[in-house]
Amino acid sequence: MNKTIAESKVFGKESVELEKFAKSKNVDIGIAPVYLSLAALKEANPSLTVASQNLHYEDHGAFTGEISIPMLLELGVKWAIIGHSERRTYYAETNESCNKKLLAMEANKMIPIYCVGETLAEFEKGVTKKVIEEQVLVGLKGLSKDYVKNIVIAYEPVWSIGTGKNASKEIAQDICSFIRELVRKEFGSVADEVRILYGGSVKPENVHDYLTQKDVDGALVGGASLKVESFRQLIENI
Q1: Does the pTM exceed 0.90?
Q2: CATH 1.10.10.10 fits domain 5-237
Q3: Set 19, 56, 84, 93: catalytic member
Q4: What are residue 81's DSSP bridge partners?
Q5: Do the beta carbons of residue 79 and residue 109 sit within 8 Å?
Q6: Is 56 in the active site?
Q7: Residue whose C-alpha is closest to residue 218's, from 153, 166, 164
Q8: Buried b (16+ CB within 10 A) or exposed e, 96-134
Q9: What is the rounded (10 degree) CA torsion for 23, 209, 230, 4?
Q10: d(CA 155, CA 10)
Q11: In the predicted model, is pLDDT for residue 160 greater than 90?
């Protein structure tokens, strides 16, 4: 919940140069602003990948405060974050509700960034992989192989988000590799095409270490993406 429409317009204009810089390094970048800023960002930089932070699985109805897929598509927004840890923690998102959203997105040819990750209590109990397995298998249930190959999965250990505690690059690789093998088991060789991101206190100074790992294809970045200069440093350090 950052940046007003006016602030987003400024960021959008500055993202034109950011995107050129990213393309020169063969890096894809995207931004997921608040709903009110989606149109402003699309207008400021039409070529930029812009994602919604959430969506509803029904296309209309009595769901006060929600936003539907047709509303997003009308703006030209074809990406959405699903199951972000904050949505799961504060708004009771479940693997089942995420699955409904992913099925609706497949029907509308939208691309999800599906977030999975364990809490501090789960990490300390040693049940990380059990939690991740359920999130992946339930979340992706019923999706087609052709669709799955285009999705993005983000591993975000909840215990490292905004806490200053970082998962090591070895933990990131271990879990991202585990996620890829889960996808392979369910959907076959398309697992090699699925982009798996790491998210959790990613900063310019640690992004390189994470992205040198074999199964970490990118990063889902929070605070370090809010300023153009730190966003540029992230791309630079990749």
Answers
A1: yes
A2: no
A3: 84
A4: 113
A5: no
A6: no
A7: 153
A8: ebbbbbbbbbbeeebbbbbbbbbbeebbeeeebeebbbe
A9: 90
A10: 30
A11: no
Query: What would you report as the CA-atom Rg of the chain, rounded to the nearest whole angstrom?
Result: 17
Percent of the chain exceeding pLDDT 70 equals 99
Question: What distance in Å separates the CA atoms of residue 222 and residue 199, rounded to the nearest whole number?
Answer: 8
**Tokens standing for residue 4:** 């007003």
In the set 86, 93, 118, 156, the catalytic residue is 156
**156 catalytic per annotation:** yes
| Helix, strand, coil percentages in the chain from 3-state DSSP, rounded to 5 | 50, 10, 35
- Domain ranges in the chain? 5-237
**pLDDT score for 165:** 74
172: which 2 tokens?
A: 């990131």
